[in-house]
């Protein structure tokens, strides 16, 4: 499924040429198959009746679709978690509840933890833009269900998003780091037992 933030402020981000291009690439990839599309706005998550990228593009370009600042991000994430399917969420993660912006609590900790506990993963691709003189971010957030395969959303979209965006991954699985140092005792930090002092034993090689 595809979830899109339609809060009033985010409309400016969607007009940014780089973000617009990234969204188009994602839509063309996702909507090649049958996907449900949801709108986050007016304090509710509603399904959009669109069947192709042209119809979706018209919705996003229509300024009248962005009626207020109340995109229920927490509700959308909870819906994604309960659906147990791949999903793409495009949002700035600015959550308002009871007419107050949530800034001091990790309001997505519980649904994120629930998703990860099932062996799933979450992938954040972050695009920057300016709103006046203020630097802001849009997050292309992919919820991957299970182990990725050729048909997984992360597999299809990461090549569209990775080249130009910063990426962060959340997972409860172990992963391997490879330093790619040329030898065991060159590059990075290593321990030399032959050193006569602690400083001489702990070597930092920056070559």
Q: Descriptors for this entry?
A:
7 helices; alpha+beta; 29% helix
Describe the main β-sheet briefly: 7 strands, mixed
Question: What is the H/E order?
Answer: EHHEEHHEEEHEEHEEHE
Helix content: 25-40%
Total number of beta strands: 11
Radius of gyration: 21 Å
User: How confident overall, as mean pLDDT?
Assistant: 88
Beta fraction of the residues? 25-35%
Read across the widest sheet, the strand sequence of neighbours is: 3-2-1-4-8-7-9
Structural summary, described in words:
The structure is a single chain. This protein is an alpha+beta fold. The protein is 29% helix and 29% strand. The protein contains seven helices and eleven strands. A hairpin with a 2-residue loop joins strand 7 and strand 8 (134-144). Helix 2 (17-30) runs antiparallel to helix 6 (153-161) and helix 4 runs parallel beside helix 5. The longest helix has 14 residues, at 17-30. The mean pLDDT is 88.
List the helices and strands and how they pair.
Blueprint: E1 2-5, H1 10-14, H2 17-30, E2 37-41, E3 44-48, H3 53-61, H4 73-83, E4 87-91, E5 96-97, E6 100-101, H5 109-117, E7 121-131, E8 134-144, H6 153-161, E9 166-171, E10 188-191, H7 198-201, E11 202-205
Parallel strand pairs: 1-2, 1-4
Antiparallel strand pairs: 2-3, 4-8, 5-6, 7-8, 7-9, 10-11
Helix pairs in contact: 2-6, 4-5
